[in-house]
Design brief:
The protein is mainly β and 126 residues long. It has strands at 2-7, 10-13, 18-26, 31-39, 46-51, 58-60, 68-73, 78-83, 92-100, 115-116, 120-125. The protein is globular, with a radius of gyration of 13 Å. The chain starts with a strand and ends with a strand.
Length: 126
Amino acid sequence: QVQLVESGGGLVQAGGSLNLSCAASGRTFSINGMGWFRQAPGKERELVAAISQSGRSTYYRDSVKGRFTISRDGAKNTAYLQMNSLKPEDTAVYYCAGVLSGGNYYYTHPSNWDYWGQGTQVTVSS
């Protein structure tokens, strides 16, 4: 099993920055891709960014390209999401997710991911 624990959420003004962390423990060698999803009230959970096991491949949804950066430290078994130029529409609960090796490093649908963190709230005020 793998456990994922997020940290770094909070309240920030529009235009500000936050850096989310996701620490993995357990059978971390079994993880291929890691990703960040978000879910706003009344909306579906959506993939924000993902990164491959090597870190060489990344995915971003269009609305965060140029503002968010996903990275991964293999030695620390930790993934990060640096969020800059935050907008009120970025307000959501952000979840870290992991997908097992043997397939793609990311999937846009949350049902295809194998491990989840508990979520961390990000609130951007206007």
